[in-house]
Every structure is written in structure tokens, then in C-alpha cells.
Structure to design on (604 residues):
């Protein structure tokens, strides 16, 4: 039983990271209707930003760690806006496939720039937060995991507030509902899209740092698999649906950890996709996605 | 009169590749290797074009079909080659043909399995399921020890010649072209243009989608078999997401559903990656920048003018 609880905690921790990345995929999909494949590289950039910021900012305390986190989120928000401005904005109004291939190009570009600048070898990620282990009736909880849960919870609640309560969040929802009508009522679509990229990229950066704190080794290709799985999580929850992405991430993290605990660690990377295929066969629009009736 | 001319062209292409292949020992092995890679990439691009281009589905798992064909064919020639060869009167080409066919058919079967979800899934959902399928194939292959696991499979006989690679490319181009331009094949384009309208016209969209997956996967499987017997070494990592993306880029840069354009894009990008080798580490940076710039400047594909 304690073993199961322990795996549950580990699975939730992994799921929280997937959820943070998945939110970026799903929000961009919501406003632009395309899969931003470069998002997994923003996640990688977030981890590297944290790595270098940790040299400037004294870490080891909660405040220092949070400062690094905030700095990396800011850097990645700028990176996200920059990517959108340079690569995706010239394609506005063209087919989503064009944007998809461009996104793949951006993803390849960032991976290879990363390998060129940072070198291909893995680096060990510094300890950002003071490390403690808490024993709760046989279940071991590390301070890194606690911070991961706390940060994720705060970010998710903050995101909910932004999307549901603020003017720009309302504009985001309007845009994802109907872009033409949104611009008719005076919403500046370009600004909302930039904001969406900034928000999603900041969350990916937070995911990158939390992931690197739990699996303390970073390299320029680290984004690919977590990125793909987070994308799976977004689709699992119903792409374009914000609570769905969070739910999908948690489900995926739990299932993956449980399969590894049951001895299937070599099949770890296939689990996410097997779960996805099973769920989509029964719910073709994801867990929380609404079935869209096609109009003729 | 269209079809007979196409058949003449196919015959001519086969004869030319046989003739060119006959003198292949005299060629520079480096250029020979590039030519073979070009032919394999053309086969892959044309077969994916049937699914993504003509039928308008979005498959991101083409490397998975290629992997199935490669492993099945390689397994047949390495593990069963010694037993089968005497039965085939010692003719290696018969064994190779048999292995390729087995790989192609197995890949086609996988295409049937993957095509089935396309009954219910559309667009991005279908894309992610095919992507997942490709990844699952890769992970399963990594876990099968008898085919080398993640170490890969070695000692595959080098049966592939220029004739096999170019011949396959010619057959694939002909089959896809002839299929789409037949009366039956107009259905593929109808499904891509407007599925509901096609259904209203009495076209069984589901059957067309599955047919596209089965035929596309079959040729990808054949290409995989030829690839395995060219490189003489295959590993699951070689058939990952990156490979699928590479094939999708051929199709999109060539212009979806434009056979000539897709062939040209496959050739161009294969040669481009080779010629960029002189840039060393900057090769992939230049390659990815080119993709971005090309998509911004020519989103309809490099080789599509007029109707787009």
C-alpha cells in the first residue's frame, strides 16, 4: 500500500510537469488551431535559462529558487513571443499545415542551435531549492516534489484567474471561439496571440525547471519526449480545452509511473501513446473535449 | 490514352534503372549511395503523398510502416535465408523479392490497423494517433531481443542495387499516379476536398481512407526492406519521429497531392542535406532555417503553380 502511495506521489509529480507543458500546446491550439511543435524546445530553453540564472542568483533558498524560476519564465515568455512574431505571424491566414511544418522547422532550429551553443553533452542541473525529505508513514516526499506541487498549483490557479477573470483572458476565449467575430468587436488578435504565446511559454519554462530539478540532467534534446507526451496529454484532455490539458497531464503521469512500477520500464515511452489510442477510440474528442458536430 | 503512356514510362524507367544499375560497380560509391538514398526517399514521399496529399489525412507515423517492412524483410533474409535459399534454387534475388513482399504486406496490414481509427478521428487527432503508432512500433522493436533490441540488427545481406531502389521508386510512382487517376481513384481526391460532399455523392469515405493507408503503408514497407538491405544495419532509433517528420516535409514542400512536386522535393532535400555536410555542425541549423523560410515564401509547396 505504501509502495502504491509512493508511486502515486511520483506519478502526480510527473503529471504536474506534463500538465504545465500541455497547457501551452492547448492554449496555442485554442487561438491559432495549430500544433506548436516548437513548444518542447521552449521547455528545454526554460531548463537552460534556469541553469545559467542559477549561477547569477544565489540559490539553495526557497526565495532564490523562485527568483530563478521567475527569471526563466520571463526569458521563455520573450522567446515564445519572438518565435511567434518571426516564424508564425507571416503565415497568419494560411493553412494550418504550413504553420505546422514551420513549427517543426523552428523546433529543429532551436534543438540544433542549442547543441551548437550549449554542446550536446548532458549537464547536471543545480539544486535550486533546499533539499529535505519528509517521511509520512512510509511515503517519502522530497522538498523538490512539494515545491513542484505548490508551484504547479499556484500557476494553474493563476492561469485560471487570467483566463476567466481578466480582460485579456476574455479576449483569448473570444478569439478561440471565433477569431473573425473577436476582431469585429475590437479585439486586437495579434496582441492576444502574442500574450497567449508568452503565457504558454512561461508555463513551459516552469515545467522545464521543475522537471530538471527532479531529473537533474539537461541537454539540448531533452524537450523532445516530454514535449511529445505533453502534447499527448493535451489531446487526451481534448485539445484547446484548458482544464482538459491539466487533467490529461495528470492522468498520463500517473499511468506512466504505475506501468514503470509494475515492471514495464522498457515500455515506458510507449505507454503514453497506447493510453492515448485507447481513450481516443472511445472518446474521439478527448476526455473533456466537446463533440463538434460538423456543419454542411 | 493516358494510362498506356504511363505504362510505357514505367517500363522505360525500369529498363533504364536496370541498365544504369548494370554499370554501378564503376560509379563512385559515395554518389551511388546518394542515388540509392534519393530513390528510397522518393518511394517514401510518394507513398505518404497518397495518404497526406491525395486523401487529405494527416499521418505522422510513416517511419513506423517503414520500420515494419525493414525488420520483416531483414528477418527473412538473415534468419531464414539459409533455409529458404536452396528452395529458391539459390537465387538471391528471389529471396530478396520474397522478403520485400513479406515486409510490404506486413506493413500494409499495419496500415489497415492504423487506418481503422481514421473512421472516427480527424485532423490533429488522427495525426497524434499515427505519431503514437510510430513511437509504439519503435519501442516494441527496442524490446524484442531476437532482432537486436535497441542495439539494432546487423549482418543483413547487401542485396539492394540501384535497380531495386530505382525500380521500386518507379513502381511506387506509377502505382500511386495510376491509382489516383483511375475512375476509382477520383474518390481519394473527393474525400480530401470535402468528405461530407463525397459521402453525399455515394463515395464510401471510410473505405477510401483505409485504402490510402494500406497502399501507402505497403510501399513504405517495401522502401524499408530496400533500405535495410542497403545499409545492412537497422536500429529502431532510425525509424523514430524524426524520420516521419522528414517524409512529411517532402510531401508538404512538394505540394500536397502533387506527385511530380513531391518527387522533386524528395530529391532536392536529400541532395540538400548531403551538400550541406560541408557546413559540419551548422548543417542542421541551415536546413531548419531553410524549411522556415521556404514555408513563409512558398507555402503552397515549392513546385505548385496555378491551382493551389
Amino acid at each position: 500500500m505504501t509502495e502504491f502511495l509512493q508511486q502515486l506521489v511520483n506519478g502526480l509529480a510527473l503529471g504536474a510537469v506534463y500538465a504545465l507543458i500541455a497547457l501551452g500546446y492547448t492554449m496555442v491550439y485554442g487561438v491559432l488551431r495549430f500544433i506548436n511543435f516548437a513548444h518542447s524546445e521552449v521547455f528545454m530553453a526554460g531548463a537552460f535559462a534556469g541553469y545559467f540564472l542559477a549561477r547569477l542568483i544565489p540559490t539553495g533558498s526557497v526565495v532564490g529558487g523562485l527568483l530563478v524560476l521567475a527569471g526563466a519564465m520571463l526569458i521563455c515568455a520573450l522567446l515564445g513571443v519572438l518565435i511567434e512574431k518571426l516564424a508564425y505571424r507571416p503565415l497568419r491566414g494560411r493553412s494550418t499545415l504550413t504553420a505546422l511544418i514551420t513549427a517543426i522547422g523552428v523546433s529543429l532550429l532551436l534543438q540544433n542551435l542549442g547543441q551548437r551553443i550549449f554542446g550536446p553533452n548532458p549537464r547536471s542541473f543545480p539544486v535550486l531549492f533546499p533539499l529535505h525529505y519528509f517521511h509520512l508513514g512510509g511515503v517519502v516526499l522530497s522538498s523538490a516534489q512539494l515545491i513542484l506541487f505548490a508551484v504547479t498549483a499556484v500557476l494553474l490557479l493563476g492561469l485560471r484567474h487570467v483566463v476567466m477573470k481578466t480582460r485579456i483572458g476574455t479576449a483569448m476565449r473570444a478569439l478561440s471561439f471565433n477569431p473573425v467575430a473577436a476582431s469585429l468587436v475590437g479585439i486586437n488578435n495579434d496582441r492576444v496571440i502574442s500574450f497567449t504565446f508568452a503565457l504558454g511559454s512561461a508555463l513551459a519554462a516552469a515545467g522545464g525547471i521543475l522537471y530538471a530539478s527532479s531529473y537533474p540532467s539537461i541537454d539540448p534534446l531533452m524537450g523532445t519526449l516530454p514535449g511529445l507526451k505533453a502534447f499527448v496529454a493535451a489531446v487526451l484532455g481534448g485539445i484547446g480545452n484548458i482544464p482538459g490539458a491539466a487533467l490529461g497531464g495528470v492522468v498520463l503521469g500517473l499511468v506512466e509511473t504505475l506501468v514503470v512500477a509494475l515492471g514495464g520500464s522498457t515500455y515506458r515511452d510507449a505507454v503514453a501513446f497506447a493510453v492515448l489510442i485507447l481513450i481516443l477510440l472511445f472518446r474521439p474528442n478527448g476526455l473533456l473535449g466537446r463533440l463538434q458536430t460538423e456543419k454542411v | 490514352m493516358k494510362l498506356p503512356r504511363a505504362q510505357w514510362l514505367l517500363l522505360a524507367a525500369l529498363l533504364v534503372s536496370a541498365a544504369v544499375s548494370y554499370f554501378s560497380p564503376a560509379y563512385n560509391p559515395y554518389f551511388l549511395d546518394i542515388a540509392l538514398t534519393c530513390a528510397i526517399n522518393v518511394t517514401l514521399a510518394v507513398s505518404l503523398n497518397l495518404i497526406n496529399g491525395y486523401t487529405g489525412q494527416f499521418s505522422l507515423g510513416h517511419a513506423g510502416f517503414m520500420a515494419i517492412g525493414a525488420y520483416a524483410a531483414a528477418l527473412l533474409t538473415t534468419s531464414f535465408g539459409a533455409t529458404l535459399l536452396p528452395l529458391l534454387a539459390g537465387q538471391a534475388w528471389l529471396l530478396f523479392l520474397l522478403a520485400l513482399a513479406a515486409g510490404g504486406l506486413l506493413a500494409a496490414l499495419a496500415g489497415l490497423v492504423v487506418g481503422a481509427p481514421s473512421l472516427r478521428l480527424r485532423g490533429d487527432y488522427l495525426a497524434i494517433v499515427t505519431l503514437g503508432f510510430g513511437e509504439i512500433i519503435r519501442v516494441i522493436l527496442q524490446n524484442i531481443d531476437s532482432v537486436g533490441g535497441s542495439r539494432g540488427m546487423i549482418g543483413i545481406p547487401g542485396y539492394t542495387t540501384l535497380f531495386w531502389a530505382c525500380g521500386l521508386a518507379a513502381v511506387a510512382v506509377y502505382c500511386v499516379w495510376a491509382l489516383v487517376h483511375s475512375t476509382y481513384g477520383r474518390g481519394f481526391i473527393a474525400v480530401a476536398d470535402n468528405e461530407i460532399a463525397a459521402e453525399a455523392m455515394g463515395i464510401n469515405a471510410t473505405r477510401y481512407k483505409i485504402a490510402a493507408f494500406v497502399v501507402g503503408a505497403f510501399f513504405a514497407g517495401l522502401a524499408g526492406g530496400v533500405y535495410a538491405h542497403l545499409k545492412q544495419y537497422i536500429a529502431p532509433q532510425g525509424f523514430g519521429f524524426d524520420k516521419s517528420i522528414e517524409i512529411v516535409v517532402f510531401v508538404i514542400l512538394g505540394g500536397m497531392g502533387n506527385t511530380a512536386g513531391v518527387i522533386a522535393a524528395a530529391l532536392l532535400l536529400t541532395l540538400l542535406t548531403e551538400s550541406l555536410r560541408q557546413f559540419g555542425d551548422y548543417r542542421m541549423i541551415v536546413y531548419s532555417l531553410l524549411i522556415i523560410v521556404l514555408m513563409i515564401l512558398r507555402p503552397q509547396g515549392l513546385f505548385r503553380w496555378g491551382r493551389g
User: Anything to note?
Assistant: Chain B has a mean pLDDT of 88. Chain B has one domain: 2-297. The two ends of chain B are 26 Å apart (CA to CA).
